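Standup notes
- HV: blocked on the assembly model, inputs below
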Amino acid sequence: MEIAQNIVLTILTAATPLLIAAIGELVVERSGVLNLGVEGMMVIGAVCGFAAAVLTGSPWIGVIAAILAGALFSLPFAFLTLTLATNQVATGLSLTLLGVGLSGLLGEAFVGSPGPRLAAIAVPGLVDIPLIGRLLFGQDPIFYLSILLTAGVVWFLFATRAGLTLRAIGDSHGSAHSLGIKVIRTRYLAVLFGGACAGLAGGHLSLVYTPQWVENMTAGRGWIALALVVFASWRPLRVMAGAYLFGAVTIGQLHAQAIGLGIPSQFLSALPYLATVLVLVLISSNRRLTMMNTPASLGRAFVPDR
Amino acid sequence: MKKIVFGLAAALAMSVAGSAMAADKYKACFVYVGSKTDGGWTQAHDAGRMMVDKELGDKVETKFVENVPEGPDAARAIERFAREGCGIIFTTSFGFMDQTLEVAAKFPNVKFEHATGFKTAANVTTYNSRFYEGRYIIGQIAGKQSKKGVAGYIASFPIPEVVMGINSFLLGAQSVNPDFKLKVVWVNTWFDAGKEADAAKALIDQGVDIITQHTDSTGPMQVAEERGIQAFGQAFDQIKAGPKAQLSAILDTWGPYYVKRVKMAMDGTWKGGESSWDGLKDGILAMAAYTNMPDDVKKKAMETEAAIKAGTLHPFTGPVMKQDGSEWLKKDEKAADGVLLGMNFYIKGVDDKLPK
């Protein structure tokens, strides 16, 4: 049954960057900001993380660099949309375009150079337990971080005062403002957090998933993360379930092909997206439930009226 | 805002480089579909351009434009080069075909060369590389090296070029192990390191002990290195990604062709309407060093390479049966180029149903 463990491991690795980026974006959107720049921040995180790891020889410094780069790169978006109240959709899109181009420029010297891999943790003894040993005790550190991150976000959003404030801002920035809550400041922090998460997700790609830098290596994963947030109707645990489901379908279709089931590969490749559409239909069929979860101020610019 | 976004997109898509030096130099211009540091297809073309620079630098100035999307947009990039006085323009992706012809009709005095296409005109030629020759050699190595007698093939899109590669690889493997089997996984992308790596993992988990790819990233090579199996590089030498895993790699070496054609364009011997399909013997592709294999396998590979170069071995020589068991090539019959270029069927031994 070694193969079952291997398959699950592959699924978890494929899902981890999606989960991290989507959890970050979830917090951003919960505060009422729609940042379509996830792909751009992710790819910047990937290149900076890889570059730092190669230059210092330490993958951990790479991870930190990826997080910082993602956060830093979200700042222009925050400044434009929050301070200058520009259109969030257009600004987010341009952030993605800028990120993809800029990362190609930054990474030019690092194409094809072998990078250090962030080694998997292996708890001695426990990792050899059949079936579950490597799943529980032998994965890469960022995987464990993604679990902690999800748990932390659940706790923050639904069990702390600050989380309640953030959600209140997302639902009605006007009311929150009139209560004296610092709308812009909170949103700045949320956007920075989202950027840091996207950066970390990118770092996972270039330091764990496939330890290398190639231009545009995120290959649309940022967009999938964005879709996952809607898919999960802004619920962290559902984001997690969605990421793993998406990973399972993606990896499952590759295995179906390798076994030779004879199902058309184009259909199999479309399957993860088909599943997403299906779930979206199921979720949105209950209109009231969707409305309840959607942050009411999502995507609307906020200009304080003094 | 929209204007800014647009401007930004245009700036990224059309980052034209190349110095505007002396105006009397002959201009050879290259249109790329990807970035020149993609580690694969476009980088190989750019290496060819740099060879033109190196060999003809005193008489020729080269220019290039990266990240040109396939389809209608490409016409603008190509036309711009034509207006800037380029003498010869190489459009290096299949999807630039119609745009190349469209622009060529407007500029009869400019010479155009389109890679991997099949439409020519009075001032348009096509050029391609017989990649399948290299795939036959690596298939033969796989046939010798695989203990299980089954290889995994990570494929991009079910177009004739890719199907031809799969068949050629398998023919090579079967030439040393008649029972050799091939598992194919289609990833429906040319370039997604993560997805290609996932496909490699899936194939390895399904029991293959050797993998090869017709996609452009080093993702699969890294997985092979990590899992301790062997693999082949694609388009570029990937030995850095798999020092213990890489057996060899098929290298795209467009340089000699580009130098030859630019020279011909300058001295007036260039003719339009032609299609060239060069192979190993012409130097348009080459094999990376044969590594991580016993000497006898290496020797066999080198002999095969020499035989293909000498023209005594054609990878597609009968008897060859189609996947369904019907006869395709009779004994000693060689496949015609036209059939290869339109190949839409598997040969016997492929463990996959060809996507339509």
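- HV (later): unblocked. Residues 2-30 of chain A form the longest helix (29 residues). The domain at 2-293 of chain A is CATH 1.10.3470 (ABC transporter involved in vitamin B12 uptake, BtuC).
- Next: hand off to the docking folks.
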